[in-house]
Amino acid sequence: MKTLKCPCNFFSKKVKNLFFAGIAVKLIVLAVFAFLTVKQSIANPIDDGKTTKKELTYQLPEYPGGQEELVKFIAANLQYPDRAKEIGITGTVYIEFTVFEDGSLNDIKIAKSVFHDLDEEALRVMNSMPNWNPAKQGEQLMTTEMRLPIKFSLR
After folding, report:
1. CA separation for the pair 120, 128 (Å, rounded)
2. Whole-angstrom distance, CA of residue 73 vs CA of residue 127
3. Contact 152, 90 (CB under 8 A)
4. What are the E-state strand segments in 113-155?
5. How far apart are CA 38 and CA 132, in angstroms?
6. Which residues contact 78 (CB under 8 A, 6 or more apart)?
7. 14-37 pLDDT per residue, tens
8. Helices (H), strands (E): how many in the chain?
9. Residue 7's pLDDT is what?
10. In a domain, 4, yes or no
11. Which of 47, 69, 133, 146 has the smallest number of CB atoms closer than 10 Å to its CB?
């Protein structure tokens, strides 16, 4: 049995690169969403013996404009380091930081390293971010420690 090969190439290199870049952005959005959403429901008994369900919301710190704007900011400002590109290094750098009650980002550090140049670029981008909307529990503003993945991909 003979296998026929199509002489045409349906996807040019540019189309493939755009396709994989789109996938990378979607993965970043998914990762950010997974790290930045929390809601709890608890049941509290009240004095008359009846149990009512009271919803207690804890709102995590949020980049101004939400997760989509965070992804846009990272995509627009992240520059793949030349040395890492030449060597072909990819991976996800995890950044830990604290969002204070005034929204300022402090104590920004690498939680999980991939390669020095990628780590430095992730820190540069984090340090260039504007203040976030701080965490809230009810109406009370809170200081919160966060972890954010920043993915570096050569596709």
Report:
1. 12
2. 12
3. yes
4. 135-137, 140-142, 144-152
5. 17
6. 121, 122, 125, 150, 152
7. 545 554 555 555 555 445 544 443
8. 4, 8
9. 44
10. no
11. 47
pLDDT in tens, 102-118: 999 999 999 999 999 99
Establish if 8 belongs to a structural domain.
Answer: no
DSSP helix, strand, coil percent of the chain (3-state; round to 5): 35, 30, 35
Task: Give the total number of structural domains in the chain.
Answer: 1
Please give the torsion angle defined by the CA atoms of residues 138, 141, 145 and 149, in that order, rounded to the nearest 10 degrees.
Answer: 80
In this structure, is residue 60 part of a structural domain? yes
Quickly list DSSP for 45-85.
E-TTS-EEEEEE-EEPPB-TT-HHHHHHHHHHH----HHHH
Residue 135 sits in a domain whose CATH number is: 3.30.1150
Contact 144, 102 (CB under 8 A): no
Query: Which residue range is the domain that position 63 belongs to?
Result: 14-44+53-152
Find the angle CA(18)-CA(76)-CA(27) to the nearest 5 degrees.
55
> What whole-number distance in Å separates Cα of residue 132 and Cα of residue 144?
11
| Residue with tokens 């596709």, as numbered in its chain | 155
Q: What is the CA radius of gyration of the chain?
A: 21
